[in-house]
Amino acid sequence: QVRLVESGGGLVQAGGSLRLSCTTSGIIFSIRTMGWYRQAPGKQRELVADITSGGSTNYADSVKGRFTISRVDAKNTVYLQMNSLRPEDTAVYYCNVKGLGTRGGFDSWGQGTQVTVSS
């Protein structure tokens, strides 16, 4: 069974920074895409950023130039460095990992971590 554990959320003032981490555990043969999504109250979950096994990255327009996604495959961990945070970045952030495990392909989600940006 694949399990994702997130950390790093919290309360920060506008203009501040936070770093989210997500570590994948379980018997994993390979990880393809790792990503971060967010969901604000009353809104749909949206992609923030993702990164492929080859290192290609994709960002939502709203976070380009402010957020950076990275991964350390040796640790099965993905990070999201968030700088110049804005109140509109307030949301629950979810980690998503797609890969191959003992039961075939998996598409797993973390439990979510709250990020609150005060003005």
Would you give an account of this structure?
This protein is 0% helix and 61% strand. The protein has 119 residues and is mainly beta. Strands 2, 4, 5, 6, 9, 10 and 11 form a 7-stranded mixed sheet that branches. A 4-stranded antiparallel sheet has the order 1-3-8-7, with no helix packed on it.
Q: Please compute the radius of gyration using only Cα atoms.
A: 14 Å
Beta content: over 45%
Secondary-structure element sequence?
EEEEEEEEEEE
* Distinct helical segment count: 0
Number of strands: 11
> How does the overall form come out from the CA principal axes?
elongated
Please give the largest β-sheet.
7 strands, mixed
Helix/strand/pairing category = mainly beta
Amino-to-carboxy terminus distance: 40 Å
Roughly what percent helix?
A: under 10%
Q: Calculate the mean pLDDT score and round it.
A: 96
Low-pLDDT sequence parts: none
What's a concise summary of this model?
The chain has 119 residues and is an all-beta fold.
Structure characteristics:
single chain; mainly beta; four-stranded antiparallel beta sheet; 61% strand; elongated; seven-stranded mixed beta sheet; 119 residues
